[in-house]
Amino acid sequence: MVSGSALVIGALVGYYLQVPQRLIAAIMAFGSGVLISALAFDLVEEAYQRGGFSSTALGFLGGAAVYTGVNWWLAHYGAKHRKRSSLPQPTEAGVNGSGLAMAVGALLDGIPESIVVGVSLLQGAGVSLVTVIAIFLSNFPEGLSGAAGMKKSGRSPRYVLGLWGGIAGASALAALLGNTLFQGVSPATIALVMSTAAGAILTMLTDTMIPEAFETAHNFAGLITVAGFLAAFALSKWGAS
Questions:
Q1: 184-214, pLDDT tens digit by residue?
Q2: Residue among 62, 69, 66 nearest 196 (CA)
Q3: Which residue, 141, 135, 134, is CA-closest to 82?
Q4: Are 11 and 150 in contact (CB under 8 A)?
Q5: Chain-centre distance for alpha carbon 66
């Protein structure tokens, strides 16, 4: 719920404040770098240690394939640019079903992250601080950028805040389900679940967050992403020591 609350905070900022496009892009790039670091050093490595390479590779590729397929389908119903703040989102009148498509798209982006949080609590292990920070930092610009684009399309505050609030609640529920449904399963299954989520998250970054960051920040997007990666890496190593 803590990491999911960043969606609502970002949506409030994006809807009611005039945030410069370059600042949105910089936050998006930094959050992407943090999340990539968490994937590399926490999620995928943890999956490998639990279940070996086969389960990790199968889940990683499977998560990417499922996300790509669903995202491709949603793009046909107006959710292609759901994280773009610089572009107006399609209206329901213009594209029938676009509101539902954006809601499902936001849910698709947030659920894998939340399942990872829930699964990481199994067997008495605490949630990785880096993972929670990474999800929070990636959720904030998602809500901010998406809400700004929805405002440009003329969607009401009730719709926008209701959407992101619902996604935050669903994310908390997904973490709870991830923690309860996988109690007592084999390490290979845990590895499969974690790596599937990791594959979906990395695909989401490549398809949505990084293009939004690069569109505005251009040459500085890579540098800011690296800074986010390094910050998360340092935090992970300091936490381990």
A1: 788 888 888 888 888 988 988 888 788 878 8
A2: 62
A3: 141
A4: no
A5: 15
